[in-house]
Specification:
By secondary structure, the chain is an alpha/beta fold. It has five helices and eight strands. It has a six-stranded mixed beta sheet, sandwiched between helices. It has a two-stranded antiparallel ribbon with strand order 2-3.
Length: about 140
């Protein structure tokens, strides 16, 4: 199930009078929790998804400002989610980042060719994640 959670610090980034929302999808609950924590600490509202199909449905329904997607997930992998979101008119220009432990050159190329805007390797540093998120959101 997709869960929306507000920033813990009350200092939420704003866009068009609403919180900037980031959808985070990972099938590993520990990684999902960690990424969500780091995104919340950066001041963004978080929408959680535990597999690719849930991420796709949440992105279509809730139209987050950015999606951070694990590559290896059940029901739809990250590449499939990226391709499906790029094909949908409501999400075609949404910033998409793939986050994965499988970061070979082939994985990276496949991710970028599928339409992802960024590709980041696990494990990641909190500062790098925060910087990439801000960059993809245009500094919001």
């Amino acid at each position: 199930m997709i869960a929306s959670a507000n920033s813990n610090n009350g200092d939420v980034a704003r866009s068009s009078n609403r919180a900037v929302r980031v959808l985070v999808a990972d099938d590993d609950p520990d990684i999902l929790e960690l990424v969500c924590l780091r995104v919340r600490q950066a001041g963004y509202e978080v929408i959680e998804a535990c597999d690719g199909a849930e991420a796709y449905a949440g992105a279509i329904e809730l139209l987050p400002d950015l999606c951070i997607l694990d590559v290896r997930m059940p029901r739809m992998d990250g590449y499939e989610v990226v391709r499906a979101l790029r094909a949908h008119p409501g999400t075609a220009s949404m910033p998409l980042m793939l986050l994965t432990a499988h970061a070979s050159e082939t994985d990276r190329t496949t991710g970028l060719e599928s339409g992802a805007d960024a590709f980041m390797r696990k494990p990641f540093s909190a500062d790098e994640l925060k910087s990439r998120v801000a960059e993809l959101l245009g500094g919001r």
